[in-house]
């Protein structure tokens, strides 16, 4: 329209209309994505500064971790010089930044291998396990929470609520041990450890065992990987499942009391239309946020489950890295997890803008 | 035969469920047992939440509750034997203050009360079939097609995350089997018919992008989408400002005249009644206390409650500083009709005779005028103020 000035609302992260993706369609979504990815840079920079300061203040260091308690001053100094730790902090940080730009995370002081290679070797297992766990939690938790709310006070509701309390209370490693003992050792239904049965001929493409099997057409390898995933994923899903059940239940209960659900019923709509379009679509908004945060926490929290099933993920590697003061590994890992959180939050925001036209960003 | 014939409708909350085998639910509080429709309910909720002593100890009109009859120490009888009828194309008012059972009556007719926790009694014949005894599937087919309802708060009554267009077309798809572009066109026509400008744009918008009056118009469009035989309007103008109120009432009147739809108007606003209704039923504490044609009611209110309602309307031509004439006290659902007139404690014409059993409706006089009072206001008495 000629002569009409377009009013631009300046960007503000908490203003609900500052990126109304609906109005601008695909371009609006793209702008949101680009903006959020650019936000990653200052986030990661800030985090890296904090990390450098914190790690420097930790007692001990890689030198004493490598040499043990009886190391002489001279030996410690030699190691520190070799690792560049004798330099002032800002110089170390500058070197780190320079390497980062070149996508070089440094070399692990523990193994002598590049940190990047170590991650590529171990992260897929953790990601696969976490995704499987969150899938189970979502697939079971949302229907269960919905049914519990619809049959409030019934046996299913009581079972779901008390069951989710138990799920939150039981330590994950304990549950993992029980599952392994019963279903793997006693009943022999599932393998007891690892990601693939030794001897299964599997080609590694992406490092994600299930996906690799599908990509290369080795479906038996895929199936084998799935069987290996079941028990650890079940154990790991216990807490997210409990959280999702409770959140869905509470949220559905709230929505059931809304006038628009009564309006939908008064229109005589099919039960599934009322359920999907009018109840769940509104009730799942807070659940989406929770699922995002839970996914992030699983990635960094799968350590114990991984060790019970010898799953070979990133968890045990990080634990030893902490013991060994393996700075490059720790910094790389924490930065990576931070990045994952930011990306998941971006996905959550995108999901919100799809579900809710008002784009509630809080 | 009238289109809708409600006979001795009773609704009890917190007693036994509709089915006798739901007995274990009886000890739960009404609010817990109640589901979607009631929890968000309008002002009438107060009568439901306050768990008072049981209503009349026995009432043969409660069917389906099993031989034990209504039970539960915390049961509340929100509607206590309401009878009225609506003829084809007639506009009938259901009038009363908050908590008298208006909304519960309408929800009961629509089958929107929670299955658990609400016990229904009496009959409500709609085109010859009892709405109260109907299975959930059958009444679901009726709702939205032959029986439609408009609610009082248009913003909260529309789904915030679904475009208006979808909310209108879904009812066309469900009851008229329309699809895709045809349904969209029909929806645009409906919006146009209820006076929403630029309907094609509005169909794509969300409730928060519409004004209050437009939202109510959209709700009305949904309600009349399938040309219902009976339209129940539950205080459709409460949340709107006065100019919009008038427009909405005008629209309802127009639709009713054009389609021959019968309208059950639920309101506390006697102005709405005066402007719209052919027949008026005044409700108090879950019972009809006066029933009459509109002119007759406003000319000669017989029941002291109706009299008080009319007298409590402030008048613009009253001298400055003139006190208002409210009905003293407030509605109380703990007063049982069984012992006498529930309005007696607030009544200026109260006498000992008021407390000997439930007063019956008097024999109909002209325009079917009936009142439930042993000491009615004489026709010669001036309405105060």
TrEMBL record, chain A:
Its main location: membrane. The keyword Glycoprotein does not apply. It is found in: Cell membrane. InterPro entries: BPD_transp_1_N, MetI-like, MetI-like_sf. One of its GO terms (biological process) is transmembrane transport. Pfam families: BPD_transp_1, BPD_transp_1_N. The chain crosses the membrane at residues 37-55, 129-148, 155-179, 225-245, 283-309, 329-352. It is a multi-pass membrane protein. GO terms for cellular component: plasma membrane. Keywords: Cell membrane, Membrane, Transmembrane, Transmembrane helix, Transport. Gene3D superfamilies: MetI-like (1.10.3720.10). Residues 123-352 form the ABC transmembrane type-1 domain. PROSITE patterns: ABC_TM1. It comes from the Bacteria. PANTHER family: DIPEPTIDE TRANSPORT SYSTEM PERMEASE PROTEIN DPPB-RELATED. Belongs to the binding-protein-dependent transport system permease family. This is ABC transporter permease. It comes from Streptomyces pacificus.
UniProtKB/TrEMBL annotation, chain B:
Pfam families: ABC_tran (PF00005), oligo_HPY (PF08352). It is a peripheral membrane protein. One of its GO terms (biological process) is peptide transport. GO terms for cellular component: plasma membrane. Keywords: ATP-binding, Cell membrane, Membrane, Nucleotide-binding, Transport. InterPro entries: AAA+_ATPase, ABC_Ni/Peptide_Import, ABC_transporter-like_ATP-bd, ABC_transporter-like_CS, Oligopep_ABC_C, P-loop_NTPase. The keyword Translocase does not apply. GO terms for molecular function: ATP binding; ATP hydrolysis activity. It comes from the Bacteria. Residues 57-310 form the ABC transporter domain. Residues 18-31 have a biased composition (Basic and acidic residues). Its main location: membrane. PANTHER family: DIPEPTIDE TRANSPORT ATP-BINDING PROTEIN DPPD (PTHR43297:SF2), OLIGOPEPTIDE TRANSPORT ATP-BINDING PROTEIN APPD (PTHR43297). Belongs to the ABC transporter superfamily. NCBIfam families: oligo_HPY (TIGR01727). This is ABC transporter ATP-binding protein.
């Amino acid at each position: 329209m000629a002569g009409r000035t377009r009013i631009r609302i300046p960007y503000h992260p908490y203003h609900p209309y500052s990126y109304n993706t609906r109005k601008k369609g695909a371009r609006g979504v793209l702008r949101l994505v680009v903006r959020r990815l650019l936000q990653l840079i200052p986030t990661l920079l800030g985090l890296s500064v904090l990390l450098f300061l914190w790690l420097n203040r930790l007692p001990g260091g890689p030198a004493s971790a490598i040499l043990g308690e009886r190391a002489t001053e001279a030996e410690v100094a030699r190691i520190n010089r070799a690792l560049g730790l004798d330099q002032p902090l800002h110089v170390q940080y500058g070197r780190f930044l320079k390497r980062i730009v070149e996508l070089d995370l440094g070399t692990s002081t523990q193994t002598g291998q590049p940190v990047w290679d170590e991650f590529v070797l171990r992260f897929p297992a953790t990601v696969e396990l976490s995704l499987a766990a969150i899938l189970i939690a979502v697939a079971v938790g949302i229907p269960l929470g919905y049914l519990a709310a619809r049959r409030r006070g019934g046996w299913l509701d009581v079972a779901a609520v008390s069951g989710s309390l138990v799920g939150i209370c039981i330590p994950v490693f304990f549950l993992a041990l029980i599952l392994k003992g019963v279903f793997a050792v006693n009943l022999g239904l599932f393998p007891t450890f690892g990601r693939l049965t030794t001897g299964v001929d599997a080609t590694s493409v992406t490092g994600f065992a299930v996906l690799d099997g599908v990509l290369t057409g080795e479906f038996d390898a895929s199936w084998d990987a799935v069987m290996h995933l079941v028990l650890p994923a079940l154990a790991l899903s216990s807490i997210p499942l409990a959280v999702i059940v409770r959140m869905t239940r509470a949220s559905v209960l709230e929505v059931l009391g809304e006038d628009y659900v009564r309006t939908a019923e008064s229109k005589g709509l099919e039960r599934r239309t009322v359920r999907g379009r009018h109840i769940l679509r509104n009730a799942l908004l807070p659940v989406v946020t929770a699922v995002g945060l839970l996914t992030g926490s699983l990635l960094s929290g799968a350590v114990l489950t991984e060790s019970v099933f010898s799953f070979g993920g990133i968890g045990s590697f990080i634990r030893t890295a902490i013991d060994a003061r393996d700075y490059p590994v720790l910094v790389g890992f924490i930065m990576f997890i931070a990045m994952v959180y930011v990306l998941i939050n971006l996905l959550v925001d995108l999901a919100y803008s799809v579900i809710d036209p008002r784009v509630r960003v809080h | 035969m009238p289109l809708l014939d409600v006979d001795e409708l009773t609704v009890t909350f917190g007693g036994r469920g509709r089915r006798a085998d739901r007995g274990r639910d009886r000890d739960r509080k009404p609010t817990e047992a109640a589901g979607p429709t009631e929890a968000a309910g309008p002002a009438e909720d107060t009568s439901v939440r306050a768990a008072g002593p049981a209503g009349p100890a026995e009432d043969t009109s409660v069917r389906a509750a099993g031989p034990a009859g209504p039970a539960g120490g915390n049961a509340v009888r929100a509607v206590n034997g309401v009878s009225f009828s609506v003829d084809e194309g007639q506009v009938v008012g259901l009038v009363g203050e908050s908590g008298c059972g208006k909304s519960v009556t309408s929800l009961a007719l629509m089958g929107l009360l929670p299955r658990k926790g609400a016990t229904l009694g009496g009959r409500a014949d709609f085109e010859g079939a009892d709405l109260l005894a109907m299975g959930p599937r059958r009444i679901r087919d009726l709702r939205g097609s032959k029986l439609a309802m408009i609610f009082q708060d248009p913003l909260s009554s529309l789904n915030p995350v679904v475009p208006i267009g979808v909310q209108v077309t879904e009812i066309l798809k469900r009851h008229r089997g329309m699809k895709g572009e045809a349904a969209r066109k029909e929806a645009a026509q409906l919006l146009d018919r209820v006076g929403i400008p630029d309907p094609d744009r509005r169909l794509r918008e969300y409730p928060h992008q519409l004004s209050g009056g437009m939202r109510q118009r959209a709700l009305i469009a949904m309600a009349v989408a399938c040309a219902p035989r009976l339209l129940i309007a539950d205080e459709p103008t409460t949340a709107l400002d006065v100019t919009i109120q008038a427009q909405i009432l005008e629209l309802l009147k127009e639709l009713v005249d054009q389609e021959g739809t019968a309208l059950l108007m639920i309101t506390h606003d006697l102005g709405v009644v005066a402007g719209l209704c052919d027949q008026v039923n005044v409700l108090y504490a879950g019972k009809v206390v006066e029933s009459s044609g509109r002119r007759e009611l406003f000319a000669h209110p017989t029941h002291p409650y109706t009299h008080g309602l009319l007298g409590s309307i402030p008048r613009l031509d009253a001298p400055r500083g003139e006190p208002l004439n409210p009905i003293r006290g407030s509605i109380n659902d703990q007063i049982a009709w069984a012992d006498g007139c529930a309005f007696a404690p607030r009544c200026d014409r109260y006498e000992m005779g008021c407390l000997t059993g439930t007063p019956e409706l008097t024999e109909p006089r002209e325009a079917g005028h009936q009142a439930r009072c042993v000491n009615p206001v004489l026709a010669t008495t001036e309405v105060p103020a």
